[in-house]
Amino acid sequence: MSAEYATFGLAPAMRAGGVLANGDYQVHRDFVDFIVDGRPLLFQLSDLDAVSPLAADIPPAIFTDHVRSLLLEAEAPLAEGRYVIYGCPECEGLECGAVTATIEKTGDGRDDYVWRDFAWQTDDHADLELNGYHGIGPFRFRGDEYRSALGQLLTPQAEPGAGRRVLLIGARVAVLAKLAAALRTIGIGADITQDATGVPSEELRGYGAVAFGRAVDAAQRAATRREFERADADVAYVDGLAPIIPLLVAQIESALDRSPAPQRRLTRLVAADGEAGLEVTSTCRVRLTAYRLDRLYRTHTHEVFDDVLDPGQHRISLDNKATKGESFLVARTTGSVLVAPMAR
Fold it and tell me: Is residue 61 pLDDT above 80, yes or no?
């Protein structure tokens, strides 16, 4: 085994939820991702839709057990000394498939940790010959760096997923109610109000985003911002583009993603003159959905692109029927979502 070291770190990540064009819901999951040599390990696994075991919505005791397991302070959860590195974001069941690996300490007196023999596993036994990730690892991590990163997760303030609530402000109560229901369905808390004045600071600090409807005037937006500034609350502000629930959900998901650009698959989206321009950081499947309002304010939905793209910048021509009039584009990958109005 090579003595060359890889760097080990952790970073907040999310699997973006959403209301899909076919009406299905995709659950939102916040988790802690493994950063190996400065890049999310998940990005080395092609277009895998998965989360690490260090997810925000599992009970604290189980979260702690997962951390201690990765520190080798508990027995491996799977046979042959294997550990789940990424699992299904919907149910986390092994039968859905999981990326597993062997984790061990080196026996050369250096107190290092090694992750090796990565494989796709769907039952108790991992077939390395048939389902092994032969181009990934082994990774050798310095023990102090490895223990320090994981040890920070054992403090309560380090738990991921804080601020997974959204405050909705708007004039159309029916739209807000539908939006709140959709957000709750995918795992994001949502509250509705007309005025944030006088709300206790600790309550305001529990929100990750504030979404304004199109009818909210500048004075009300400014007053809301002052209340959050008074509470020293770090929130993202979302200006709703149109009363289209899947579009608004995508806007909010995008706002909740605070990860730096190198840790996102999708980093740029522009839409103009019937064409989309986007940039991806790793090979992944990209889906583009266009939403259009006609003159009677009816919503029309069009799936305009669905394919695997290589890292880099891409320009994609769009169907004129899907983008005429007032229209908007949603780009989605596993873990990232961006929204852009169609400029003319």
Answer: yes
| CA count, 13 A, side-chain hemisphere, 99 | 24
Encode pLDDT of 300-324 as tens digits.
999 999 999 999 999 999 988 888 8
Residue with tokens 């046979």: 79
pLDDT value, residue 163:
58
Neighbouring-strand partners of residue 139: 115
Rg (CA), the chain: 22
Please tell me the predicted confidence (pLDDT) of residue 45.
85
SS3 string, the chain, reads: CCCCCCCEEEEEEEECCEECCCCCEECCEEEEEEEECCEEHHHHCCCCCCECCCECCCCHHHHHHHHHHHCCCCCCCEHHHEEEEEECCCCCCHHHCEEEEEEEECCCCCCCEEEEEEEEECCCCCCHHHHECCCCCCEEECHHHHHHHHHHHHCHHHCCCCCCEEEEECCCHHHHHHHHHHHHHCCCEEEEECCCCCCCHHHHCCCCEEEECCCCCHHHHHHHHHHHHHCCCCCEEEECCCCCHHHHHHHHHHHHCCCCHHHCCEEEEEEECCEEEEEECCCEEEEEEEEEECCCCCEEEEEEEEEEECCEEEEEECCHHHHCCEEEEEEECCCCEEEEECEC
Query: CA-CA distance, 45 to 148, in Å (whole number)?
Result: 25
Instruction: In whole angstroms, give the CA distance from residue 226 to residue 203.
Output: 15
- Starting at the edge strand found earlier in the chain, the sheet holding 29-36 runs 8-15, 29-36, 39-40
The token duo for 191 is 């509250």
The alpha carbon of 175 is separated from its chain's Cα centroid by a whole number of angstroms, namely 25
